[in-house]
Specification:
Mean pLDDT: 96
Helix content: 10-25%
Shape: globular
Bound molecules: beta-D-mannopyranose
Strand content: 25-35%
Number of strands: 43
Oligomer: single chain
Structural class: alpha+beta
Number of helices: 16
């Protein structure tokens, strides 16, 4: 029997605008720039629009969002096996979004959902072998369709209760961020955004669902296979093979296919090599394949075997329940960040771009990435890399920040789309949770929709929160049926008596930065069982900002072009307020604004990450089992909550989170020893004692010694501490927090920086972790002005040849030392392994660096309030 053949329909594509917007721009056929594609990519390629990511070009590109485009190609017919049962099908992996598809002049498909793949039988329409076929995709713009759907179905919200974009976006199944978000422009694409194929076959596997279940004692793994095959001939079998991670065949089984085309079996692997997130182990991957009639069609899945649980047990010393992922019976602390789509023009995302982003996150010790519901269920490549690298994935379904409809036709689409997505990526070992939506329950509470949490029965279609049907019926049913061992969670955030209940489920902590703009020092008060979102804005690197803003006169934080690239609501107020509360800031020139806002973000992250990592506690006391910062990545050169900007420049916050998620962390918390006197204002409470703790991420105990020292911040002189606190032996408990010192007095606390160093009790006695603890607010602190900071280059012997080491030291305590190569030195900045470092006299810090290219003489160091040491500077 002839094997299934797949031909990509990727050549000879042309496109044109079929509306008359922007003086009928692109109204005649033009070749596409690439395939798959969207109109913005092709218009850019032909220089018919400016780059929407630069300056205020967003505005000049808005017409494209509302235009209609047609794509057309021709391709010759392949030979079909001369067999009555042979078929030809066109497979569309993804069409963005409202489209009528014509094949050899006959309409074969109406598409309404960007997230769906389509398959159409074209056997009857296919031309004879060698003759040309014509495929035409007529896209009409999604905003107009969305508006008409909104009118038809009826919007139950009030227009202000949709965060970002217009409410019409809720009525069309298209990536919601295409309407613009608070970190990116309004760029609403249309076109064939994923590959198109012609498949010819006589029989095929139409569903191949591979799920797993690992026994409690980890001794066996069951691989559960369910599927369907379309086959003209009865009494068929499918040959299933399990291949070991090392490539040898572990087992094979020939499973019968029923008369209705279904097959089902469970294969057992004894003593499986288990898959772990990279923070706890390795990533062996098995391959499972199914071959129909041995050769005609084969499907394969790569499978990491692991026991996955989401533990919600009562806590010993706190209300509520844990929200704790356990893999292979190990409690996993899920540190990481949220992922927004890598590009507006999604077909520009390549496997290597995905891989670089994910490996970057891993290099920052991040073991969980949340794929946010306002984007897409990512490309297969994304999850493949996560499987291979051992990064856990939290996956939202594709709803975000709005009151969605639950009209029958809409729900039908949602259902198909969710089934397809769960089938497509649901087998990945890295995928550990499916979540109903982003923030829709939170909005229901915030905006007072008719949401009665006690009404679990429904139906809810008469209320103004009808989408409960989707989140509480449709999606859980699909997950129950198709998701295997991966749990479903109703929303992010969700749990407890309100969606942001800190004692149950997950929370989004926006009381800092958004909302009441609480001080970041209060993050501790918002400790929850799992923080799936929180964040703090900062500017990107100077080179990235220069890219965004080409006019030198606009390169300051109060320009229109700057505002256009910082979509965060009322960002100017927030920068000013948070900076003013915390340190003597300077926002001009631009490099000072960048330093100051990056400083703020890094400090905020430090408070949050370190408190919450400490709150991982121990067995039965997991007050917080995960922290996902909003957001890992940026989509364009702009200012946002991202840890890494669009050009992949690491912000200081990236280094802070990397340190906070290291295997071993030591931390210091200053404790209030005297409140502000009664009726008196303006004076902060005294904090003259410090508690010291550590977290050990290894699964075995770790003997170590804590060394504590103290320095006067202005003079740099060492301050004597009692002997019993200067060194202390500790045994760090496995995979949990150890409280080391309940309280140590800090001499002259307001002018003293404490330095805690944790050293391994091993022969090499290497430093495991360090922490500098400063009095706050920093605005009251007097820093030295005549500081000497040195950087010396040392050729590295142990690192790869392109890596060098810079030795960094200072003669006074310094906060937030940032190393960089200035723009004036030419070229890109070097890539620093560590940055944003606090220093004390006498310590030399080794910083690995790549891309210095002989520019060591040009290294610039900056630190907090360095501008106060400038000649002529007076406060
Ligand atoms: C969260 C996210 C996003 C948003 C971010 C920053 O609520 O879910 O919608 O970009 O806040 O405001």
């Amino acid at each position: 029997m002839a094997p299934l053949a797949r031909t990509p329909i990727s050549k000879n594509w042309v496109f044109r605008q079929t509306t008359t917007l922007n003086s009928s721009c692109a109204s005649s056929w033009l070749p596409v720039a690439q395939f798959p594609t969207v109109a913005h990519i092709d218009l850019l390629h032909h220089k018919l629009i400016p780059d929407p990511y630069i300056d205020t070009n967003e505005l000049d590109c808005l017409w494209v969002n509302d235009a209609d485009f047609t794509y057309r190609t021709t391709f010759p017919s392949p030979s079909l096996p001369s067999n009555d049962s042979s078929r030809a099908e066109l497979v569309f992996d993804g069409l963005d979004t409202i489209v009528s598809v014509f094949f050899n002049s006959e309409k074969i498909l109406e598409g309404r959902d960007m997230h769906l793949s389509y398959r159409v039988d074209v056997t009857r329409l296919l031309k004879k072998e060698g003759e040309e076929n014509e495929l035409e995709l007529r896209f009409s713009n999604a905003p107009a369709y969305a508006k008409s759907e909104m009118k038809r179905i009826g919007y139950k919200g009030n227009g202000t209760d949709v965060h970002f974009g217009g409410p019409e976006r809720l009525f069309v199944r298209k990536a919601q961020y295409h309407w613009g978000w608070d970190w990116g422009p309004a760029l609403n694409t249309s076109g064939p955004w994923k590959p198109i194929w012609l498949e010819t076959f006589t029989e095929r596997i139409s569903q191949f669902l591979v799920r797993q279940s690992v026994s409690e004692d980890l001794s066996t793994a069951k691989i559960i296979i369910n599927g369907t095959a379309s086959s003209a001939q009865p009494s068929r079998t499918i040959l299933l093979t399990v291949t070991n991670p090392n490539g040898s065949i572990l087992l094979t089984e020939e499973t019968p296919i029923s008369s209705t085309g279904t097959f089902s079996t469970t294969l057992t692997v004894s003593n499986p090599e288990l898959w772990y997130p990279f923070t706890y182990g390795s990533q062996p991957l098995y391959t499972i394949s199914g071959a129909l009639n041995k050769t005609s069609h084969t499907e394969t899945r790569t499978l990491g075997l692991r026991r996955l649980q989401l533990l919600q047990h009562p806590l010993t010393s706190a209300p509520g329940t844990s929200f704790l992922f356990s893999i292979n019976n190990i409690s996993i602390f899920c540190g990481g960040s949220c992922w927004i789509p890598g590009d507006y023009l999604l077909p520009r995302m390549t496997p290597s771009r995905y891989s670089s982003w994910l490996k970057l996150a891993k290099s920052g010790n991040q073991c969980m990435i949340r794929v946010w519901g306002g984007g897409i269920v990512e490309s297969d490549e994304f999850y493949r890399v996560c499987d291979e690298e051992g990064i856990l994935v939290w996956q939202d379904f594709l709803f975000a920040c709005g009151d969605y409809p639950a009209e029958e036709g809409f729900v039908e689409l949602v259902k198909k789309e969710a089934e397809q997505q769960v089938e497509r990526v649901g087998h990945h070992a890295s995928l550990v949770i499916w979540v109903g939506n982003n923030e829709d329950y939170m909005l229901a509470e915030m905006w007072g929709w008719e949401y009665d949490i006690d009404d679990q029965e429904g139906p809810w279609d008469k209320t103004n929160f009808p989408a409960r049907k989707i989140y509480e019926r449709v999606l859980p049913e699909i997950c129950e049926r198709l998701a295997g061992d991966v749990p479903y969670w109703r929303s992010s955030p969700y749990g407890g008596t309100t969606s942001n209940d800190v004692t149950v489920g997950d929370t989004h902590i926006w009381s800092v930065w958004h909302g009441p703009m609480a001080p970041y020092q209060e993050y501790k008060a918002y400790t929850s069982r799992f923080v799936s979102e929180f964040g703090f804005e900062s500017a990107p690197s100077i080179r990235t900002l220069h890219k965004a803003i080409t006019n030198p006169r606009e390169r300051h934080w109060q320009s229109l072009t700057f505002d256009a690239h910082d979509k965060g609501p009322s960002h100017q107020r927030r920068y000013g307020m948070y900076s003013g509360e915390n340190f003597r800031f300077r926002f001009n020139p631009l490099r000072d604004f960048i330093y100051s806002t990056q400083f703020l973000q890094a400090e905020a992250m430090k408070y949050a990450y370190n408190h919450w990592r400490r709150a991982f506690g121990g067995p039965g006391a997991e007050l917080c089992s995960g922290i996902l910062v909003w957001q890992l990545n940026d989509i364009w050169p702009g200012t946002s909550w991202a840890l890494v900007d669009s050009e992949m420049s690491l912000k200081p916050s990236f280094h802070i989170t990397k340190r906070a998620l290291a295997k071993v962390v030591v931390g210091v918390e200053r404790l209030v020893t005297k409140k502000t006197p009664y009726m008196v204002t303006s004076y902060p409470p005294s904090k003259t004692r410090a508690a010291i703790w550590a977290v050990n991420g290894f699964t075995s105990s770790l003997p170590a010694t804590l060394h504590l020292s103290a320095f006067d911040i202005e003079t740099g002189s060492s301050i004597a501490l009692p002997d019993d606190v200067r060194t202390r032996k500790v045994m760090l408990k496995p995979n949990q927090t150890t409280e080391i010192v309940e309280g140590v007095d800090i001499p002259d606390a307001d002018t003293t920086v404490l330095y805690a160093s944790l050293v391994a009790d091993r022969e090499q006695g290497e430093q495991l972790a360090r922490w500098l603890d400063w009095p706050e607010p920093l605005k009251f602190v007097h820093f030295a002005k005549d500081v000497s900071v040195t950087t010396t280059l040392q050729p590295s012997s142990s690192s790869p040849s392109d890596s060098e080491v810079v030795l960094l030291k200072a003669d006074r305590p310094l906060k937030g030392v940032v190393l960089s190569i200035p723009v004036s030195a030419g070229g890109e900045d070097a890539i620093w392994d560590d940055n944003f470092i606090d220093l004390v006299p006498g310590e030399e810090i080794r910083v690995g660096v790549r891309g210095l290219d002989g520019r060591e003489g040009r290294i610039v160091t900056r630190w907090l309030c360095d501008w106060e040491g400038e000649e002529g500077f007076e406060l």
